[in-house]
Write the structure tokens for this entry.
Amino acid sequence: MRLDGYSLSAINVFQVRTLRALGFHARVVLVNKSDTEPARATSYRVDVSVFDQHGRLAREVANVALLEPSGYVQLDCAQFVDGTGDGDSIVFFHMIPLRLLRDSADGVTTSIDMAELMYLLAAQDHYVEYYDDDGYATGVLYISGAMNIRSNPEKTTMIQAPKVHVGGELTTLMSLMNTSPEHDYTTVAELACRLTDPSGAVVARWTEHIGPFCSALVDLRAKLPADAHGAFYTFFGLSRNASLLPLTMTFDRTHRTLAVEHSLPPTYYGTSVKGAVRSGVVAALASSELFS
Amino acid sequence: MSLISSTKTFVRTHLPKPVWEAVKVYGLGLLEMGQPSLQMYIAEHGVRSFVGMNNYFSTLAADIANEAVVELVFHAADGAPLFTHRTRLVHFGSQALDVTALLRARGLDSPRGIVTVRMVPQRRRIPRYQELGLLLSQFFMFYRDEQHGSIAQIHPSSQIDTAATPSPPFLSSQIVATHGLDAVVLYQCNPSSRAHRMTLALLDASSRTSVVESVIDVPALGVRRVELAVPAAARPPAILVHASSLPSGNSKPMLQRRFSDGRFSMSHA
């Protein structure tokens, strides 16, 4: 399948949130492993766009780095977010494939085969790291890709996260990003949230509304009822109007340590849970005892 | 005699034992089950490991109330099987199993090793499950050192893969800053059925030359811990983790940054 008019800045995009709310700085490592298949190797020009805590486009910077095949680039987010407000921002790192840019008629879009798009996206992980001035650093590798684009009708989110650890100094937060490479994206994501105990009983239910280009950081411990004594819960999330980027963040406030982990998409559990099968799974989940 | 029991009798009497063993576990092929997923547990240096898992069949087929039958097999660092723990997850149920408690309950002292997890729905012959494709038993391992407050959460990177072939050289996508860093500890597992020799190295991120390295032999289904202290002399500001080859395609090491104040952070490399 060929995609015409596909935005060059949406082919390989890494989206991260800053974490001022917990007092951490943020930096990323961008990696170019496109030369795993030499015929598909490309260099990337790295462009950056920043959205402030209110979801407003605060800054765009072109050509902040050149990412060669087999190359690494480390960039600190401070240089892009300083002066954009006190809250947490979302930073997009757009990796523009120069091989495709050369053949682009308008310098903005390209015609790309789906197989090549998936190859360029999946050829590498990128790394976001949260760090303190004393050197403590922690992070996670993930692929985010372009979400909530018009050409992709799939705009849902399913989260199953058996990784909510609480108690003592410990809490677990759910970070949620609502993004799109299309700057006129306006959807306010609605995410139905549930916390269950090991018996499967729902102990907390609420709905998160996340504005376009905004991030949420939900303290799951604060959502538990006052009489909850367990140390372990499972978070479920379901959105039928947006694709969100979730990260689980377990945080020890006393020792200032942080465990960041991405979620696993449904295809990691059942390899055919995409397209119509995924739609059926989402519909059944939405009407289930958990979410109804 | 039903068609199913007739077929089972045929399979038991005419097919090799491994096939019959698979039928006993998975039923008559109505479900496409992947190999068990695995992750490393740590029960040393004050670290406890918790296997966090949920009944994912509930999420993928929410209108079908069904239990998940879970089998966890724990291996020692040398790959030898230690014990099997079986449990069940109710519909939408979950558990966080404390590995240290499981070891202590059996009088075992195993500082590190592999745990494999296989989840199978109690009722398997449900056509809806077949639409889900190959089913993989995902879970999350939570690590905690209460003395220093260190925590980590890491998903499995591998399944048991008896036919695995070693990977090409591996270079982690992380750049490790050395400010405040005492050492890098790498935990390497081997999901394959044969021993694997490899060199783990820290490279200067700028020159990509080796700063320190170690050759290890990782037994089949075993785990090796390698501590690589960053030399104080000529200490580069940033380093990369390199492996000459991995035991299987995606069996990347767990990368533990150990800081000078005793805390650590950890993720897959």
